[in-house]
């Protein structure tokens, strides 16, 4: 223990030190030297004034480093203020952030209430929650940095991260689905979608199985009692040196089928990180009995479906949408996938991925699916249970081991889903014609969700063309949460995309809508595959499509004018959309056959059920404006006259059969009466025909000659899907529909696998009336449907001007559709119907007088060309975008989306008439010497048009005296 000593502030003078020196040393201490880094000057420059104040002991023998200049401080650049993010400050600032927000509180320990998105633009900061709902705005003229805090709309926020402008425009902050597990071999029996027990990966399941095994062993040991012997640890009786080492299995796993065989189709392997420890990966090879029949696009489709359902493709789930057009073999691809998952697994010595599979389809196609399974796999390979009878017991499938696949209709599933989910675990569900599930509240959708199956494959040859919300319903059923919440999707995607397509949309609206559309396409293509029917061109016989524009009869035109001119009709133009649809329905029947208006109750809807609102005061008042004599006069329908002539020529000159399609059962009744009067036998399928009787009618039609069954009447709603009518090689579409997909489906009934004859398709339109104008809008809609997702509603959102244009009857006798595309061919062919390339279309557009631009100012023309720059300075993306915009504007000036008609031959039927040369000579008023040359020229044009048609039966109809067909669009795809 040492005694305490007080600290000495000054050094105690030594005994031999003089007192004078002691007093001098009591002055202020010398200044401290600043500690600096190496290479910097530690002391200020020495001067006479301060040199004496520095003690000699401090500066002696102290080498000073050379003097160095300090580097300037680095300026911190706000990443939000960069040009690519909207750049600049003040009112022009534009930036986007993810933020945390909370309500104002006086609590000591504050917590955040939720996440949000903050956008700064135009001098204001706008706050949205993660679902896109507006929460308020506040003044803000400068970009922010992560960690910045401010008050917006009564909320306290803190900036978390910065969002790039392109990511915000794409909607990524609002659409961030949780990725699904990468790979699962076989689904366990536990429930998944109801939240009771989530699916485990293979690795997790292995650990879970070991843990459960240990628990079971512990229970067994405890039940047998305990003793000193049983409580002791097990000891190996053999020494390590004397025990034989365990030899790991080195055998190479053998797949079920040879992956090296010619034409073998091998599926993608799962990543090694997802394979359980101690397990090996084995190739999954498609059974050669199926793969040898798969075409190239079908092999690609099977691989895509396999990767999606196994979690190897889309990160959003284990579902897939196969949206191939009709006739591409979606059924065969689905059967191949089902058979593969029922028999194989990518993990060696593991059970197959799926034990039970379910095929859900419309009731009318149940037997067709059963037939396809038997066709490709036979009766002995797989057990298929068809739930088409009330007497069949579902437990034979759910609890039995004989059946692995069940085929069931949507209506039957709504009644049986509880029994199915209770008694067995479905491993794979295939939904045929899934566009029927277009609402989230659909009863069939609820039944499918209750089955707790993760692997769902959706089949639909029809694009989801009514609106994006219908597509969201199907996509969310297949991969739950892949497109976010419905309310968020509607607000942040459907709204901006539709708004960008409106004529009054601003540049910012179009930019945002385009970005949202591109982001949506990027997400969708991860789990949806769509191919066009063009890929079948080398497998199927050629298909020729004729669009016949029929000039209305005098009585029909007068009836049409009276309807449109009625005061009730004019007053209904500004009414509700429901009344507008009733008026459209009346005019469609006037185009089909004015006699249908005699009985207002015959005005049925396209879905084969009477419309209760069809016979109301408005409808009756409109029909009262039409003189009764006109409605009772014979031969008032131009299309019915053309149909009569066409059927007579097909029956007389050929041995082919014909399918006649209409959207209205009342129209089918009229056509059936016509066939009976001509003594032509026919069969018919509409909504009144029971589902279990339809396949028998189809088989009878396909297997009998034309002398026994000449025609088949088909309703688009009742028989537009899943029906194979290859016994016929000609199809007549009697009326048009807003949705072009319905007519594409109808065309695919005859032009599909198994067809041996060239197919002829006739579409009848009333020239200048509602038919032709619906077809014009149909062309625009079909171009949108090519991207699978159509963002326009069929028939909704009509303005008063749109309705007035729809209801106007053009009696000029010219083809209005041909004039809209400004084609200079004058009805003489325009290339013979050979499908041109994009370059050809653009070249035609450049040569068209309708798009000739003023080229007097050469400076303006050169401004569009890229300037000469170095290769490193050229922005290729910007130049490509500029060229694309210019090409799009060029197309719009030519009729917009109707440019698809440039793929057709344009034929004015007056050139085919025998009197056409005389009329041409009379108009030209030439000399006698020139008459002969002109006569030869017109005759050559007529021969050229006949060669383009390549249809003798149609040529006879067009050349008949008094033929109602005035213009023809024709296209042959081969």
TrEMBL record:
One of its GO terms (molecular function) is hydrolase activity. Residues 642-804 form the Helicase C-terminal domain. Residues 13-25, 47-62 have a biased composition (Polar residues). Signal peptide: none annotated. Pfam families: Helicase_C (PF00271), SNF2-rel_dom (PF00176). CDD domains: DEXHc_RAD54, SF2_C_SNF. Transmembrane segments: none annotated. Keywords: ATP-binding, Hydrolase, Nucleotide-binding. Residues 1-72, 833-857 are annotated as: Disordered. InterPro entries: Helicase_ATP-bd, Helicase_C-like, P-loop_NTPase, SNF2-like_sf, SNF2/RAD54-like_C, SNF2_N, SNF2_RAD54_helicase_repair. This is P-loop containing nucleoside triphosphate hydrolase protein. Residues 311-481 form the Helicase ATP-binding domain. PANTHER family: DNA EXCISION REPAIR PROTEIN ERCC-6-RELATED, SNF2/RAD54 FAMILY MEMBER. Coiled coil: none annotated. It comes from the Eukaryota.
């Amino acid at each position: 223990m040492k005694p305490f000593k007080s600290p000495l502030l000054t050094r105690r003078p030594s005994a031999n030190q003089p007192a004078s020196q002691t007093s001098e040393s009591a002055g202020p201490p010398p200044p401290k030297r600043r500690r600096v880094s190496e290479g910097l000057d530690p002391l200020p420059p020495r001067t006479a004034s301060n040199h004496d104040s520095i003690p000699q002991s401090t500066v002696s023998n102290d080498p000073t480093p050379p003097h160095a200049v300090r580097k300037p401080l680095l300026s911190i650049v706000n990443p939000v203020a960069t040009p690519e993010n909207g750049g600049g400050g003040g009112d022009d600032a534009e930036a986007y952030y993810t933020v945390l927000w909370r309500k104002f509180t006086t609590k000591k320990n504050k917590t955040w209430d939720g996440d949000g998105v903050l956008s700064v633009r135009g001098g204001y900061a706008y706050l949205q929650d993660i679902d896109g709902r507006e929460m308020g705005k506040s003044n803000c003229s400068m970009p922010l940095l992560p960690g910045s805090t401010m008050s917006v709309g009564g909320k306290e926020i803190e900036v978390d991260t910065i969002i790039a402008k392109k990511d915000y425009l794409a909607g990524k902050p609002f659409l961030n689905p949780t990725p699904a597990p990468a790979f699962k071999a076989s689904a366990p029996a536990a429930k998944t979608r109801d939240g009771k027990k989530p699916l485990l990966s293979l690795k997790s399941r292995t650990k879970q199985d070991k843990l459960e095994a240990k628990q079971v062993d512990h229970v067994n040991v405890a039940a047998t009692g305990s003793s000193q012997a049983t409580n002791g640890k097990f000891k190996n009786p053999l020494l390590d040196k004397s025990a034989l080492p365990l030899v790991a299995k080195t055998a190479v796993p053998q797949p079920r089928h040879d992956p090296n065989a010619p034409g073998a189709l091998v599926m993608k392997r799962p990543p090694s990180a997802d394979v359980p420890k101690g397990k090996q990966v084995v190739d999954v090879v498609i059974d050669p009995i199926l793969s040898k029949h798969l075409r190239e696009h079908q092999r690609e489709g099977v691989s895509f479906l396999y990767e999606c359902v196994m979690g190897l493709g889309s990160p959003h789930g284990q579902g897939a949408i196969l949206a191939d057009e009709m006739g591409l073999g979606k059924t065969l691809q689905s059967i191949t996938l089902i058979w593969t998952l029922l028999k194989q697994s990518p993990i060696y010595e593991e059970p197959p991925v799926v034990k039970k599979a379910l095929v859900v389809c419309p009731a009318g196609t149940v037997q067709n699916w059963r037939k396809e399974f038997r066709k490709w796999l036979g009766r002995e390979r797989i057990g298929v249970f068809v739930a088409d009878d009330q007497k069949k017991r579902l437990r034979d499938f759910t609890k039995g081991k004989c059946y692995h696949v069940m085929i069931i209709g949507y209506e039957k599933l709504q009644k049986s889903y509880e029994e199915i989910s209770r008694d067995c675990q479905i491993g794979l569900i295939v939904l045929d014609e899934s566009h029927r599930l277009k609402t989230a509240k659909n009863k069939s959708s609820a039944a499918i969700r209750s089955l707790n199956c993760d692997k769902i494959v959706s089949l639909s040859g029809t694009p989801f063309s009514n609106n994006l919300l219908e597509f969201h319903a199907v996509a969310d059923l297949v991969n739950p949460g892949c497109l976010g919440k419905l309310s968020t999707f509607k607000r942040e995607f459907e709204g901006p995309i539709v708004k960008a397509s409106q004529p009054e949309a601003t540049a910012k609206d179009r930019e945002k809508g385009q970005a949202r559309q591109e982001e949506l396409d990027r997400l969708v293509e991860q789990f949806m595959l769509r191919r066009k029917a063009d890929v079948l061109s080398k497998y199927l016989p050629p298909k020729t499509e004729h669009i016949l524009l029929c000039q209305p009869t005098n009585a029909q035109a007068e009836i049409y004018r009276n309807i449109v001119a009625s005061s009730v009709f004019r007053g209904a133009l500004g009414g509700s959309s429901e009344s507008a649809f009733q008026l459209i329905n009346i005019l469609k029947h006037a185009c089909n056959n004015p006699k249908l208006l005699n009985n207002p109750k015959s005005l049925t809807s396209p879905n084969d059920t009477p419309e209760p609102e069809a016979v109301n005061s408005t409808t009756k008042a409109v029909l009262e404006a039409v003189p009764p004599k006109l409605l009772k006069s014979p031969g008032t329908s131009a299309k019915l006259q053309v149909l009569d002539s066409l059927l007579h020529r097909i029956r007389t000159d050929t041995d082919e059969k014909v399918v006649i399609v209409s959207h209205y059962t009342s129209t089918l009744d009229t056509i059936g009466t016509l066939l009976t009067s001509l003594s032509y036998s026919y069969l018919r399928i509409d909504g009144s025909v029971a589902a279990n009787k339809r396949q028998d009618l189809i088989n009878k039609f396909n297997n009998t000659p034309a002398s026994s069954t000449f025609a088949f009447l088909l309703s688009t709603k009742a028989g537009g899907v899943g029906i194979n009518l290859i016994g016929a090689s000609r199809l007549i579409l009697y009326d048009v529909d807003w949705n072009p997909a319905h007519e594409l489906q109808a065309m695919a009934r005859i032009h599909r696998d198994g067809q041996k004859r060239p197919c002829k398709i006739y579409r009848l339109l009333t020239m200048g009336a509602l038919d032709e104008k619906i077809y014009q809008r149909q062309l625009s809609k079909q171009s949108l449907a090519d991207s699978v997702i159509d963002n326009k509603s069929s028939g909704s959102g009509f303005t008063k001007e749109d309705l007035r244009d729809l209801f106007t009857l053009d009696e000029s006798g010219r083809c209005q559709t041909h004039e809209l595309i400004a084609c200079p061919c004058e009805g003489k062919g325009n290339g013979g119907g050979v499908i041109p390339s994009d370059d050809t279309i653009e070249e035609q557009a450049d040569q068209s007088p309708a798009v000739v631009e003023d080229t007097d100012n050469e400076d303006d023309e050169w401004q569009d060309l890229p300037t000469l720059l170095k290769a490193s300075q050229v922005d290729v993306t910007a130049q490509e975008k500029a060229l694309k915009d210019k090409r799009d504007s060029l197309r719009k000036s030519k009729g917009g989306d109707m440019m698809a008609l440039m793929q057709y031959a344009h034929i004015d039927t007056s050139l085919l008439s025998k009197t056409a040369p005389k009329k041409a000579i009379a108009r030209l008023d030439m000399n006698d010497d020139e008459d002969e040359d002109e006569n030869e020229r017109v005759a050559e044009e007529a021969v050229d048009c006949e060669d383009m048609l390549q249809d003798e039966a149609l040529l006879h109809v067009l050349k008949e005296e008094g033929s109602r067909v005035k213009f023809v669009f024709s296209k042959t795809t081969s």
